Amino acid sequence: MKRQDKEDAIRQFRDNVPVLVSTESGGEGRNLQFCHVMVNFDLPWNPLRIEQRIGRIHRIGQEEDVRIYNLSAAETIEAEVLTLLDAKINLFELVVGELDMILGRLTKSSDFEDMVMKTVMTAQDRHDLKRRMDVLGEELREAKNHYDQIKQLDENLFERLVADDE
Q1: For the chain, what percent of residues have pLDDT higher than 70?
Q2: For residue 140, which of 48, 55, 88, 133 is within the disulfide window of CB 3.0 to 4.6 Å?
């Protein structure tokens, strides 16, 4: 769509139309805090892109509880990745920006999508894929635990600084 057509579609969604079906490009640079329900039916493998989508509606100015629904076909890689992200790092409970801190520790020089793709491509069979995804899940859990420890240290330090200033 042309830029003006996108703007018109968003305005119609906000004012008159109860549902907007959008491709990945529909979310670029959009603030959709007038919306409070999102259904992801084409989940990307990159959790930062999922976080970005959620951030479009879960922003300052949002007046409703935000509900996110993620659709995936059973026994697919997409379902495995979604389960991994939810079970190991509680992706949908993180504050925007925290995910980058967790994945940054985990992925070093490659990105998460590459890690998943390598895991999928090198698996010998479904059982091996499950085992490899479990290993990746443990790495995610460890990265999340490390982040939580750093976050707690930061909070303790901040509390001391505030107490010292009083």
Answers
A1: 91
A2: 88
